[in-house]
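Regression test attached.
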Amino acid sequence: MNAIYILWLRQIKRYLRSKARIIGALGQPILFFVAFGFGFGPVFQKAGSGNYLEFLGPGIIAMSIVFTAMFSGIEVIWDRQFGFLKETLVAPVSRFNIMLGRTLDGATVAVIQGVVVLILAMLIGFRIQNYWLLPLAFVFMFLIAIFFTALGTAIASRLVDNQAFPLIMNFVVMPLFFLSGALFPLEGVPAGIEWAAKLDPLTYGVDGLRGLLENQYFFNLSIDFTVLVLAALALVALGSWLFSKIEV
Amino acid sequence: MAESIITVKNLTKKFGDFTAVDDISFFVPQGEIFAFLGPNGAGKTTTIKMLTTLLHPTSGGISVSGADPKKQQNEVRHSFGIVFQDPSVDDELTAFENMEFHGVLYNVEKKLRRQRIEQMFKLVNLWDRRDELAKNFSGGMKRRLEIARSLIHRPKILFLDEPTVGLDPQTRNHIWDYLRQLNKTEGLTIFFTTHYMEEVEKTADRVAIIDHGKILTQKSPTEIIAENNAKSLEEAFLNLTGKTIRDESSNAMDRLRTQRKMWRR
């Protein structure tokens, strides 16, 4: 327990000290929000789909969480190459606890980042419909964060260096994000896209967030929650297994 | 003779077809300073990794502080401290936070932990610098920090994998002074590797020389010098291991060092 806490604390301290990283990670989602939100807003309105900023907000929050969580997971590669991983691996702490500590701290950082994006989006024009459901929305944010930190850790456990990183971004993270319905409604999309979206766990995360904050569901809350919890648990299990196989 | 604290019997490690460590046996008595020498790629680091639970042996038996690193990982891990060949401090944390992190991971109770941290900081003369970020430390200071850190949980054995590489003579002498002091006062067993033969002559009680995964000799430095009719340990070492230069397979470190900067911030 102490070990999980100190691993968590280490990550939080590192995060709070890297101001450049915090600001850098805010830039992309905010740019997406402003450019897409205001750019496509009029078309969206004319098509009779309502306010695009409100539709897009949950997607953008999810985006910032996905990227931050993924980076936290992938940090295993650097800890490995720069020796610090060894320091934790020779300590009398089980691999499972180390993995769990890493996942929780990565997820915490990602949720903080998501909340900051939420606040910034609100300053720009995003409106929350259901303030009383906000705590539940945080639960969804946390689940998305757990899923992607564990995914990052799982992938990083199999990599010796970061040569494959662009590959991961382009063939794992980007597709999961773009096909999740974060940017467009899934109603009426071609069957192929709809199936891809249904296979993408992030779709359920985004849908849950959008439903809770804006009353707009594609599925419904219990489906979103169940799928997301199962996906997160599966990835934590996979991540732990792969992490336990690391030899340095 | 003191009781053996590290015993290795017929230890072998294979990576695919390559045999990194080939059927070696040796022992280290408690309280000894033991030097494990060999050219690059001889199998030193692989052996240390197996002794410290980071790698599983292909075959053979190991006992570290009376426990088997494969089966009783936690007992073994509590019993040793290690300073790795590559730096392993967290640059984004302060020196104190690095120490604290280690103490908590090893479950050292808070009061004792703080006491040990102060004591170890003072031993390596870093107490005044404890609140600085580790990234502002020089190579020598980081090494001292690592040595201090590795001792917080009062290990019985200290593994040092090339602890003085890249350090100036002043720092090297300092570090060996601390280590000899710890060996005397706390009875710490020290297992180290190095390429500086004069360090070995000055400090080691006993030496094992390994090459191509096999141990060539294990005796005291003076015995090895005498046996090889050499003037120094370096000459004896070269007699035993030959003069060809070894090519170590490169790892991904150098590529990463540059790339890390590119996308971390």
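Expected vs. actual: identical. Residues 2-244 of chain A form one domain.
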